[in-house]
């Protein structure tokens, strides 16, 4: 019996390693398709008209790691001189079941499927509000493989994406402008920029995902910001938290009946 248990444990470990290896290979395959250059359409709309910026965020239940809500918002930014430079047009939210566990460096495989479904559902309901670029509450090139969830999502959707993260582990303090490059000071593509978007002393961390440069991602972030967290991801985050709280309260009430 003990020998059988050891054998099953060994098989389980081997299978886990095989799964991680396959995921790693897929991540490398997708990374080869990642483009860190600005889409011409983005530059045209950013400089000469209005740009629709989508925001994506996921809120998880503290008591059930498989329960979460994914939010999608769309914000329109226009002329910097306009009083209505940043206007929220729509916010959607859906409850999801998360079946993939969290594995460090492979967050994309846990969250990107939910983002993909949320974006497609949003665009089916709001065809005229399809975002030109997606801002993800996650990282883009700020990742051990330079290919975080924002990059992963952008490649699969084949549209511009970038990440805006609230935290940067291992960085004890950050100035207003703190760019990190990929391989040294002469590297063409910067990984991220720590950015103060408001009077807050805490920065957010912007990194390009796909079909966009860091410079353009930073410009869009600043033009979308009223508070510390830029409006696209802030609105999505607020909605997911609201819906999660309502769902948990309702479930607790039902369970008590």
Automatic annotation (TrEMBL):
Q: Which GO terms describe its cellular component?
A: cytoplasm; nucleolus
- UniProt KW Cytoplasm keyword: yes
Q: Which UniProt keywords apply?
A: Cytoplasm, Endonuclease, Hydrolase, Nuclease
Q: Keyword RNA-binding, does the record have it?
A: no
Entries under Pfam families matching the protein = Endonuclease_5 (PF04493)
List, alphabetically, the InterPro entries matched: Endonuclease-V
GO BP: any one term: DNA repair
Q: Which molecular function term from Gene Ontology is one that the record holds? A: RNA endonuclease activity producing 5'-phosphomonoesters, hydrolytic mechanism
Compartments it resides in: Cytoplasm
Extract the PANTHER family matched here.
ENDONUCLEASE V
The entry's protein name is Endonuclease V
Q: Which organism is it from?
A: Taenia asiatica (Asian tapeworm)
